[in-house]
Design brief:
Layout lengths: L8 H7 L7 H6 L6 H8 L1 H9 L10 E6 L2 E6 L2 E2 L1 H14 L3 E6 L5 E5 H17 L7 E5 L4 H13 L2 E4 L6 H11 L3 E5 L1 E4 L2 E4 H9 L7 E5 L15 E3 H6 L10 E2 L3 E7 L7 E6 L1 H14 L8 E4 L6 H14 L2 E5 L10 H9 L3 E4 L1 H10 L2 H4 L8 E5 L5 H11 L6 E4 L33 E4 L10 E7 L9 E2 L3 H9 L6 E9 L5 E6 L3 E4 L2 E4 H9 L4 E11 L3 E10 L7 H14 L8 E4 L13 H8 L14 H13 L1
Parallel strand pairs: 4-17, 6-7, 6-8, 8-11, 11-12, 16-17, 16-18, 18-19, 19-20, 29-30
Antiparallel strand pairs: 1-2, 3-13, 4-5, 9-10, 14-15, 15-23, 21-22, 22-24, 24-25, 26-27, 28-29
Helix pairs in contact: 1-16, 3-4, 4-11, 5-6, 5-7, 5-12, 6-7, 8-9, 11-12, 14-16
The structure holds 5'-O-[(S)-ethoxy(hydroxy)phosphoryl]adenosine (WTA).
5'-O-[(S)-ethoxy(hydroxy)phosphoryl]adenosine (WTA) binds next to helix 12, strand 20, strand 24 and strand 25.
Length: 653
Amino acid sequence: MTDPKAKTIDTLLSEIRTFIPPAEFVAQANVADPAIYASANEDWQGWWASWAEKLQWDRKWDTVLNWNLPYAEWFVGGKLNASVQCLDRHVAAGNGERIAFYFEGEQGDTRELTYSQVLRNVCRIANGLKSLGVNKGDRVAIYMPMVPELAMTLLACARIGAIFSVVFAGFSPTSLKDRIQDQTAKLVICADGCWRRGKVLDLKTVVNEAVAACDSVTNVVVLRRGGGCTSAAPATARDVEWNDVFANQADTCTPLAMDSEDPLFILYTSGTTGKPKGIVHTTGGYLTAALATTKLVFDLKEEKDVYWCTADIGWITGHTYIVFGPMANGATQVIYEGAPDFPHQDRFWALIEKYKVSIFYTAPTAIRAFMKWGEEHPAKHDLSTLRLLGSVGEPINPEAWVWYLHHIGGGKCPIVDTWWQTETGAIMITPLPGITTTVPGSATTPFPGIEAKLIQEDGSEVIGAGGGYLALTRPWPSMLRGLWGDNKRYEETYWSRFPGKYFAGDGAKRDENNFLWILGRVDDVMNVSGHRLSTMEIESSLVAHPSVAEAAVVGVAHEMKGQAPIGFVILRHGYVASPQLEQELRAFVGTEIGGLARPERITFTPELPKTRSGKIMRRLLRDIAEGKEIGDVTTLADPNVLKGLQAEFVKHD
Ligand code: WTA
C-alpha cells in the first residue's frame, strides 16, 4: 500500500468520490439514525421546542412561534438569560472546573480559564458595565482582538441585557464610526492592540479616530493587551481603563431575565448598497439553534472534546460557534490570537497537537493557504486526536476538501461543509457527520427542521435536479429579526424577490441524490477569503478619492481567496494614470474600509461598459478580469468600449 499522504490531489480526487462515515465514528455519534430528518420535518416547531427545553428558562414560553411573515417571534412569553445558558448552569451542574478556554497568544503567552473563572469574570465585567451607566437595551460596540476578554465581554453584556455589537478589529476608523453611529452605541470597549505576525496592531488609534465623531458614546473602555503590546495613541477624555472599571467589581451579578425576543446583538454585514446592514438577533431562538446545531453538526461531546473554531469573534461564525453554541453546550475550546503562519507555517498544527484538539472548524481560504504551504507542515505534528473537521464561509473546492480530509483528517475524519449566513444565525445546510455520506464540494442537505428550496427566475420551484436561487421556506429560531432601524430594507432585501420565502442571495444546484451545491452569491456581494464585501461599498470608497470620477468593482475568481476585488476607474480631468496612483487608490480603500477590501488591482480606463440606460455591466468586467470570452453585449450602449478596456487590462499584466 502506498502512503495516502504521498498521493497527488488528482489521485485523491479520482479515488474519493464519496466519504462514508467510518463505523467507529458512527458507533459514538450523537446522531446515527437518519429518521431524525423525517421526525423533525413532520413537527418542526416541536423539534425546535425540544431543543429550547434543554435551556434554562426563568419562565417557560406560552407559544412556540408567532409567524407574521416576514416577522417571527419564537418561544413567545419565555424568559431567560443568555449568559446563564453558557455559564451558570454548567457551574450549577458541577462542571465549574471544566476548562472553557485554552487561550494562546501569538507570542506564546497562554492562559487557561475554567467555567467558574469565566463566570466570575463575566460578573465583574457586568457589574462594571452597570457602574458606567449601561442599562438594558443600551448598545455596546466592541472592537477587540481574539482574547478571552472578548468572549467574556459579550456574555457580560448579555447578563445585563445590553445589546452588543462586535466590529471586526480589522475594520477601518470610518467603518467603525459608521457602525457606532448607526446603532447610537453608548459605550465602546476596545483593546489597545494585539499581535499579528509578530507585530503590534494598534487598535486604539483606530478607535480614537472613529469615536471622535460619535456623540452617543459616553465612555471608551480600554483593555491593555499587555506583553509588550501597547498603543502610542493618546488617552482621550472619555477613556477608562479596563482594570479600573472591571477588576475590583464583585464577582457575582444577578442575571437579568430577558424576554425570549429581546435583542441579544447586532452584527453588521455587507449588503448590495454602500451602507452595511445591522443584522438583529434575539435571545431564545438564537440560543436554541446555536445549542442544537453545535451539538449535532459537530457531534460534540462536551465532557471530552477539545473544540477549535479558527474564526474571529468579529464575524457571525465566532458569535455562534465560539461563544454561544459551544459555551451553551459547555464545551472546552481553544482560542488563538494570531496568524496561522507565525512564527512558522505549522502554528495551527502545533496547537492541535498541544491542546489535543478533536474538532476543528475553519474556512476554505485557510485550507487553500495550508495546501500552498505544503503538507510537510501538518506532517510534522501528531494530529491523531482530530475526529471531525468543518468548513464554512465559502464554497469549498473538491481539491481543498480531499486535501483537508487526507492531510489534516488522516483520511478518517468526516468533514462538515456548513452553509449559513450572518442572517441565519446558525448552520442551515450541512451534513450530519454520523449519517451523511458526503461528497467533496457539496454542503449536502438542510439541517433537520430547515426547509430549503431552489427557485427559478419566474418564482417557480425547481423540482428534482437543477439549479436556482437558494431560498429558505420555513421560519427557524435563529433567523434575523430585522435590520437595525430599517425594516423596509429588511423586507425588500430578503422577502420581496420571492414573496413569502427568505431569499439568501446565493445560487445553488441540486444533484440527482438531492444534495445541494452552493454556487456563490448572485448579487453584488463578493466573498473574499470567506468574508462578505459589497461591490458598492468599495466603489463608493474609490469615488471618495479626489482623483476618481467613476469606479466599477467586481469580484473575480482568485486561487487563494476564492474571490478578489478588482477595480476599474475613470480618472477626473487633470489626473494621469500611473502605477503610483494605482497603489495610492488601493491603499486608500484599505484605510477607508479595511485591508480585506483593498482591490487586487485597478485598471484605469476612459470609459466603462454601460447599458443604454447607463447601468454599468459588471458581468462584462468580470469576463475581462477573468480572461473569459466576453458574454452577451447586445445591450451595451457602445460595444467598442470593451475592446479598449480589454487591451488596457491585458497591458497591465
Ligand atoms: C457564503 C458566514 C458555500 C455564502 C457563516 C453566504 C458559503 C455567505 C458557505 C454568508 C458554504 C457561507 N459553502 N458558501 N459552506 N458558508 N457561504 O454572512 O455566499 O459572513 O451567503 O456568514 O457566505 O457569509 P456570512
